[in-house]
């Protein structure tokens, strides 16, 4: 095969979150604000809405911190329940609950990256269209 090294960009693993955001702030999505574009734009069939599966009262009852009150809280509570039940030997007793919660957190992270990438590409597209019209 040779000594040619394949870069991340060639492998399809390059994220837009990079130095380009600092160099081109007009196409960098703002993560501290809601999306600029309609979430259904480009989805003619619609999208499945994300919903919280745990109530605020239940999260308060388990004293979840603000960073834990996400779309995976419904899996964190059973993990905490298991850890409480088997403490201090909960390490191996709660593997399934830990796996389920970790998987949900990973999937949520991937979803946020995809949403960021979508917003970035739509901002770049809007900029290209504006430049063509000028």
TrEMBL record:
Keywords: Coiled coil, Disulfide bond, Electron transport, Membrane, Mitochondrion, Mitochondrion inner membrane, Respiratory chain, Transport. Residues 1-12 have a biased composition (Basic and acidic residues). GO terms for cellular component: mitochondrial inner membrane; mitochondrial intermembrane space. Its main location: mitochondrion. Residues 106-133 form a coiled coil. It is found in: Mitochondrion inner membrane; Mitochondrion intermembrane space. It is a peripheral membrane protein. Pfam families: NDUF_B7. Belongs to the complex I NDUFB7 subunit family. This is NADH dehydrogenase [ubiquinone] 1 beta subcomplex subunit 7. It comes from Steinernema carpocapsae. The lineage of its organism: Eukaryota, Metazoa, Ecdysozoa, Nematoda, Chromadorea.
């Amino acid at each position: 095969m040779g000594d040619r090294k394949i870069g991340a960009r060639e492998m399809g693993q390059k994220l837009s979150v990079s130095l380009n955001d600092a160099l081109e702030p007009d196409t960098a999505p703002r993560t501290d604000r809601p999306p600029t574009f309609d979430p259904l734009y480009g989805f003619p069939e619609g999208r499945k809405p994300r919903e919280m599966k745990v109530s605020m009262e239940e999260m308060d009852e388990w004293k979840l911190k603000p960073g834990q009150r996400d779309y995976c809280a419904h899996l964190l509570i059973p993990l905490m329940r298991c850890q409480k039940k088997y403490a201090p030997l909960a390490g191996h007793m709660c593997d399934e609950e830990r796996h389920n919660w970790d998987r949900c957190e990973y999937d949520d992270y991937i979803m946020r990256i995809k949403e960021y990438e979508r917003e970035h590409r739509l901002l770049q597209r809007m900029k290209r269209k504006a430049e063509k019209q000028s």
